[in-house]
Amino acid sequence: MLSQKTRYAIRAMQHLADRHGKGPIPLAEIADAQNIPAKFLTVILSELARFGIVASQRGKDGGYWLGVSPIDITYGDLIRVMRGSLALVPCASRFAHETCKNCVEEKDCRTRALMLQVRDATAELLDGVRLSDQIELAPVAEDAEAQGLPG
């Protein structure tokens, strides 16, 4: 599962992408529109600014905006910045690999082999979707049940 911090970061970045080119967006607007605690959002946006993904301006007319075009930011990029990896287990990470503690040898671990496949499929999907892309909304659980769709 994605951490709450990562989910907040994605929502904040979507908000900024929707307003790309419209000048600084006040923190309060992002926090209110995306239902993110303002203090936590400040920390998240500061972290994203350190990576150059977000820029900011202080003062009365200040706020935040994307530091790069939304077409140049993938969802994979955002998750890697916030989590450090797309992998579900440390031994399946391509860029932050760690040997799992209390496990069998990596060469003999079927779980690792499966998680590498999951990681690669996840990366292919998330690296193929950019902040500038439209994402079709999915029905909520109650709607899916009403339509007879699997939840």
UniProtKB/TrEMBL annotation:
<dbReference type="InterPro" id="IPR000944">
    <property type="entry name" value="Tscrpt_reg_Rrf2"/>
</dbReference>
<dbReference type="InterPro" id="IPR036388">
    <property type="entry name" value="WH-like_DNA-bd_sf"/>
</dbReference>
<dbReference type="GO" id="GO:0003700">
    <property type="term" value="F:DNA-binding transcription factor activity"/>
</dbReference>
<dbReference type="InterPro" id="IPR036390">
    <property type="entry name" value="WH_DNA-bd_sf"/>
</dbReference>
<dbReference type="GO" id="GO:0005829">
    <property type="term" value="C:cytosol"/>
</dbReference>
<protein>
    <submittedName>
        <fullName>Rrf2 family transcriptional regulator</fullName>
    </submittedName>
</protein>
<dbReference type="GO" id="GO:0003677">
    <property type="term" value="F:DNA binding"/>
</dbReference>
<dbReference type="InterPro" id="IPR030489">
    <property type="entry name" value="TR_Rrf2-type_CS"/>
</dbReference>
<dbReference type="Pfam" id="PF02082">
    <property type="entry name" value="Rrf2"/>
</dbReference>
<keyword id="KW-0238">DNA-binding</keyword>
